[in-house]
Amino acid sequence: MESSPAQNSIPSTTFRVGDWLADPSRDVLVRNGESVKIEPKSMEVLVRLALKAGAVVPQAELEAEVWRGLIVTSQSVYQAVAQLRRVLGDSPRAPLYIE
Which residues have a Cβ under 8 Å from the Cβ of 18 and sit 6 or more positions away? Predict the structure, then answer.
C-alpha cells in the first residue's frame, strides 16, 4: 500500500508553538536565541499534532503516520511526547502545549 507524497512529507516551513519556533527542516526548536535539536520522529509527532491543533489525535494514528511501515509499540509515541514536553517545558499534569 503506497501513501501519497504529501502525506509522508514534513512541512519545511517554520511554525510557532507558544513562544517556541519549530523548524521541521532542521528538527530544531528555537526560543530566545536558544536552539534545541530534537529527534526527527519527535518533530514529526509535533508537526502532526500542530496540524490538528485542538483535536484529539489517536495514538494509533501517530504510530501509522510517523512510523509508517514500521512495527512499533506505544512506547515510541510516549518517548517522542516525553522529549517534546521536556524541551517545551510542558507538564502532563498542567499541559500548555500537549494534552
Answer: 88, 96, 97
